[in-house]
Amino acid sequence: MLFITDTGPSILRDSGCLHHTPIFSHFPFSFFKFILFTVTVILCSSSMAGIWTLAALLLLSLSISTAAKQTYIVHMKHNTKPDSFPTHHDWYTASLQSLASTPDSLLYTYTNAFDGFAASLSDEEVELLKQSQSVVGVYEDTLYSLHTTRTPAFLGLNTDLGPLDGRHALDINQASNDVIVGVLDTGIWPESKSFSDSGMPEIPTRWKGECESGPDFSPKLCNKKLIGARYFSKGYNMASSGRGYLKKPKEIESPRDRDGHGTHTASTAAGSQVANASLLGYASGTARGMATHARVASYKVCWTSGCFGSDILAGMDRAIADGVDVLSLSLGGGSAPYYRDTIAIGAFTAMERGIFVSCSAGNSGPSIASLANVAPWIMTVGAGTLDRDFPAYAVMGNKKRFAGVSLYSGVGMGGKPVGLVYNKGGNSTSNLCMPGSLEPKLVRGKVVICDRGINPRVEKGAVVRDAGGVGMILANTAESGEELVADSHLLPAVAVGRKIGDVIREYVKSDPNPTAVLSFEGTVLNVRPSPVVAAFSSRGPNLVTREILKPDLIGPGVNILAAWSETIGPTGLETDTRKTEFNIMSGTKHYTIKACLCKNLSVNVGGSGS
Questions:
Q1: Is 330 helix (H, G, I), strand (E, B) or coil?
Q2: Is the separation of the CB atoms in 176 and 593 below 8 Å?
Q3: Burial annotation 338-375 (CB, 10 A radius, 16+ → b, else e)
Q4: Other beta carbons within 10 Å of 6
Q5: Partners of 471 in the β-ladder
Q6: What positions does the domain Peptidase S8/S53 occupy (predicted)?
Q7: How would you class 105 by CB atoms within 10 Å of its CB: exposed for 0-12, middle for 13-18, buried for 19 or more?
Q8: CB atoms < 10 A from the CB of 99, how many?
Q9: Computed from CA positions of residues 414, 417, 419, 421, in that sequence, does the dihedral angle turn out positive or negative?
């Protein structure tokens, strides 16, 4: 048996060889030291069995060392680089090699958003780095998560609505021509009509970005509207594949959006006008972004398991170098000290260089102190409602009619009531309609009431459908209150608030033969009151700096129609095979462009200045 101690494996202490290797007594035990031990004993040993044993131990140590490594972001003192190194990249590489790290341990070198690098390190290598006078700090990689047609009119940005703050619509368009919006998200669907460059002038000569190629993405797909498309995946690959990053990628590595979130966010900010846009007939009209003449540069930093801080920082670093005017991030990871917050660090440098940074507040409301992206140099944006709704109705067997919302677009239920059931299943989660919780013999041919919460809203409908149900009433609980979010369900479904939900639940319990029928009314406008803060929009206070109020403002974030990736259905479920060019989503996606337009208007069309 092998025992690892501070002075080395006990099997070596009995070999006699250690008396001739005094170097071992001067360093803590490490993987590098273990190799020296192994080589020494192989040279000293005359036993073939001993050689094979130590060879096996060496292979085992390699496996253990590999598994123990993970990604860290290392903050360096920029000005302490020795003159013997031509670049900081050379310096960082040499620093890692001095720790016996392999050449591919260095993942990213940051030069614009941050002074330092990201690397795959063992716990021991981290401790050794912290001892260096040139290292400010070493931080474990953080996993962040992802957080329209009526919106421009609602915010007063439509070109046919007259002046904005005394400016003519032509001035607004001219001001936005040279605004470059960098969107850090899940990538881009370049074929979308929302990224058409029809009528746009040439790309600003100051732009240094480019469109990268990938197995499913050609740089030729970019144009004068979509002027940049890059991807950053080393942090994601390191976390998902260990030392084999880039050897066995979990998904296709390219700028293409296979989630939909990035395309939706980018087109919300700066999408071109697209006539006759809708989600399967809902919200029909002209879709457009906040600034139709602004340019879009996409930086894919989010993958199937989320958005890693090392990739986000690399995207921000590159976007600053490329020359963006605005950085837009609809992602976050809760509150943390600014020096530990990847987004806050990158945003600070961007702010210093005159780049406007806007981030979503998060979708963890209505809980208090649930905010993300609270740094004072970031515009933090919450979500509010629009003056548009998608009404649907549930009529009970007692003739009571209840209003809700839905984006269901398939064949309706007809006018004949069917049985209504609640909490009918083989386990305690049937009220939530969790996968596998419903008994087909109890719900087949019936409408099922599902409590909102825990699993995705659209997944609940899929569970009901798979169990044989013909419809669903998605009823809010105390946590979600009266907030209603419309979804493109896979079966007839109506979402209702908590008060109505309680009434329907009581009806099912009290009536010996409860029934219901569902109907759908399309799109209605001029809903009042609006805007109203969405229940899911994260709330303050700001736990990092309580003196600074956050979020800074709210923007339309409920039921927003925008461009979509055609590799995924509107619900995002793998079982949803429907394809659509546009989708309606909710979340704290933010509206940075109005502030940026005001800034550009004052510079470009504001006269002679002070």
A1: coil
A2: yes
A3: beebbbbbbbbbbbeeebbbbbbbbbbbbeeebbbbbb
A4: 7
A5: 447
A6: 177-588
A7: buried
A8: 18
A9: positive
DSSP secondary-structure letter at 267? H
Q: 426 falls in which pLDDT band (50, 70, 90)? A: low
Determine the Cα–Cα distance for residues 152 and 595; give it in Å rounded to an integer.
14
HSE, side-chain direction, 13 A CA sphere, residue 523: 19
| Distance, CA of 447 to CA of 444 (rounded, Å) | 9
pLDDT tens-digit profile of 171-182?
Answer: 555 556 689 999
The overall pTM is greater than 0.90: no
Task: Output the six-digit token pair for 303.
Answer: 């993958």
Q: What's the CA gap between 241 and 253, in Å, rounded?
A: 14
Where do the DSSP E strands lie in 256-400?
A: 274-279, 282-287, 295-300, 302-303, 306-308, 326-329, 331-332, 356-360, 379-384, 388-389, 391-396
pLDDT band at 63 (very low <50, low <70, confident <90, very high): very low
Query: Which pair of structure tokens corresponds to residue 393?
Result: 């109705």
Measured distance CA(150)–CA(408) in Å, rounded: 20
Q: Which residue has the higher pLDDT, 420 or 389?
A: 420
